[in-house]
Each structure stands twice: as structure tokens, then as C-alpha cells.
Amino acid sequence: MTLSLEVNPRYKKNKHFFIEMKKLIALILFPFLTIPFGTKANENFSVEIEALTLVMEQYKEDAEATTELDIEDKKPSYMALKQDECNATVEVTEKTGLEVVNTESFDVNVCLKEIHKVIN
């Protein structure tokens, strides 16, 4: 007496389990397949990102060159505003906790990789 696989309840249970597992795996992997590989930052913000990077590198070098013995730890925050396809203004604000200690502005040309400090 042979039982066909269609009638065997164990076969139906395993078949149902594998179908559900396939759905679960597809659900987990689907978002990774729809996101394009090698996504870059939005092109609208590329000038600001490049300007921030240039200023952060120079600001770090300047901070290391002028090592002052401060009791308070100054933490810079950066903000960039795009002017055109090559130029942006970067504002660096140094804070100690809630107190603003210093604010500096820079005009940055990302095409020429030039940074000019704005004197108010």
C-alpha cells in the first residue's frame, strides 16, 4: 500500500512551510533589490557636502596647529549654503555646551578647492 505524496499530511505541512519561507525571504530581500547599488548623495547637495568637507579638513588642521590649553571643550558645528554650482558659504559655530563661543564664515569654491575666510 503506497500513499501518494499529495495525500500525505506531512508533505502538505512541509510544502506549506517552504512556501512561507520563500515569501519571508523575498520580503526581506526585496528592499535591497529595489535600492540602486552605488547610490550617491543627492546631486543637489554635492556642492554643500564638498564645501563642508574642505572646511572641516582645514578647520581640523588649524585646530591642531593652535593647541590651546582650554578648560572648556569647544565643539564646532557646521552649516553650508549653496550659492551656485561651484560656490557655497560655510558657517562654523563653536559651542561649549549651550554657550556659543565663536562663529566664523567661509566662502568656498569647490571647483577650484579654495577657501576664503569672511571677515565681518
Biggest sheet overview: 4 strands, antiparallel
Give me the secondary-structure category: alpha+beta
Mean pLDDT: 79
* Rg, nearest Å: 29 Å
Gross morphology is elongated
Distance between the termini: 97 Å
* Tally of DSSP helical segments: 2
The H/E string reads: HHEEEE
Strand proportion, as a percent range, falls in 25-35%
- Low-confidence segments, given as residue ranges, are none
Number of separate strands = 4
Task: Spell out the key features of this protein.
single chain; four-stranded antiparallel sheet; alpha+beta; 120 residues
Helix and strand topology:
Blueprint: H1 9-34, H2 46-65, E1 75-82, E2 87-96, E3 99-109, E4 114-118
Antiparallel strand pairs: 1-2, 2-3, 3-4
